[in-house]
Design a protein that fits this description.
A hairpin with a 2-residue loop joins strand 6 and strand 7. The strands form 3 sheets. Strands 6-7-4-10-11 form a 5-stranded antiparallel sheet, with no helix packed on it. With about 250 residues, the protein is of the alpha+beta class. The longest helix is centred in the last third of the chain and has 38 residues. The chain is built from 2 helices and 12 strands. The chain is globular and about 50 Å long.
Length: about 250
């Protein structure tokens, strides 16, 4: 039995190792995080950039936004050691996205390393971009990216796979766009919905009631224990010693 368990564990370990080896190339791709967003809404998309070279460092990333499915705006956040440039172009004619009128579209966002900064071997960096309103006429936002190394090597992540086909060697970062909620609201990736005061009050009352109940149970158990101890002391066996005559 023990031998069988040992063999099973060894097989599982080998299988897990093979899965990790098979997944390693995919983990090295430039990807968009998270992989889903809401059509017509606003969200934060982070471009995750791993360094694939064993000898060189990544010093530049350029992301291209689709012209046929325009994104209205893009904002970057300060990234230590990196500069960011957002390029926008005016649209031929304004388009309506929910309650927003879009007159220009994002063309490219470029992140460039300052001297002394790079993504070294075995490292990765996330570059967050706040974007919106997102297209509402497509279910997939494709964001081709160009990665540049300090030894001059350039890798284009711009390939898309046909439906049902295997993943290409250099897939473009993509975001799946889902329909907006039926009430017309657009999701915000960084928004959190606070609990209502009524819910908080109800929760507090339940917690308070639970605390009182536990306290009463504790007093009851303590009183019972004290009573048992008292009875044990009062009714305990009495030892009588009878002395003999000399």
């Amino acid at each position: 039995m023990i031998k069988n368990l040992g063999r099973g564990a060894a097989v599982a370990t080998v299988a897990g190792g093979l899965l990790l080896v098979g997944a390693a190339p995919a983990l090295a791709h430039v990807t968009a995080q998270p992989g889903t967003a809401t059509q017509g809404g606003y969200t934060v998309i982070s471009l995750r950039v791993p360094n694939e070279s064993d000898t060189a460092g990544t010093v530049k990333l350029q992301v291209t936004f689709p012209a046929d499915h325009p994104v209205g705006s893009a904002r970057t956040t300060p990234q230590p050691g990196w500069t960011a440039e957002v390029v926008t172009n005016p649209l031929p004619k304004p388009i309506q996205r929910g309650e927003s009128t879009v007159t220009k579209a994002v063309s490219t966002v470029t992140f460039t390393a300052q001297p002394g900064t790079k993504i070294g071997p075995g490292q990765f960096v996330d570059f967050p971009i706040s974007v919106g309103p997102l297209p509402d006429d497509t279910t997939t936002l494709v964001l081709p990216a160009i990665q540049t190394y300090d030894d001059g090597k350039v890798v284009a992540w711009d390939q898309t796979a046909a439906p049902g086909a295997a993943e290409p060697e250099h897939p473009a970062p993509t975001v799946t766009l889902t329909p907006a909620a039926a009430d017309g609201g657009h999701g915000h990736a960084t928004d959190a919905t606070p609990a209502s005061s009524g819910d908080a009050d109800t929760t507090a009352r339940w917690l308070g009631g639970g605390g009182l109940l536990l306290g009463a149970l504790g007093l009851g158990l303590g009183g019972g224990a004290a009573l048992r101890n008292r009875r044990s002391t009062t009714t305990g066996p009495t030892t009588t010693t009878t002395g003999g005559r000399e």
